[in-house]
């Protein structure tokens, strides 16, 4: 298996002590950005490559589908595939 995806409606989803769907979305994104040392975005998907996570825009609107999901992926999954991503920071929001 190279990745596993969880959606907001499955209940408690924890990552390093952060309740991904039980905490304010902006706070989650800030915490993940800090743990990862930065974040990148493309087409609404936020990449935390060092942590091995992608998430939807947890800070925007009510939870729906892929916008409120988290995916854990195997090391190397995004190697060489991040040209369309741009740096983003949630600490200035």
Task: Set down the secondary structure blueprint.
Layout: E1 3-7, E2 14-15, E3 18-19, H1 25-36, E4 39-42, E5 45-48, E6 53-55, E7 69-73, E8 86-88
Antiparallel strand pairs: 1-7, 2-3, 4-5, 4-8, 5-6, 6-7
Task: Describe the fold and architecture.
The chain is α+β, with helices and mostly antiparallel strands and 93 residues long. The protein has one helix and eight strands; from the N terminus they run E-E-E-H-E-E-E-E-E. The radius of gyration is 12 Å and the shape is globular.
Q: What's the number of helices? A: 1
Strand order in the sheet with the most strands? 1-7-6-5-4-8
Per DSSP E runs of 2 or more residues, the count of β-strands stands at 8
Estimated structural class: alpha+beta
Form type: globular
Overall average residue pLDDT: 89
- Write down the Rg: 12 Å
The largest sheet is:
6 strands, antiparallel
Order of helices and strands: EEEHEEEEE
Strand content: 25-35%
Termini separation (Å)? 35 Å
Helix content: 10-25%
Low-confidence stretches: none
Quaternary form: single chain
Quickly list its features.
alpha+beta, two-stranded antiparallel ribbon, 93 residues, 8 strands, six-stranded antiparallel sheet, globular, single chain
At a glance:
By secondary structure, the protein is α+β, with helices and mostly antiparallel strands. It has one helix and eight strands; from the N terminus they run E-E-E-H-E-E-E-E-E.
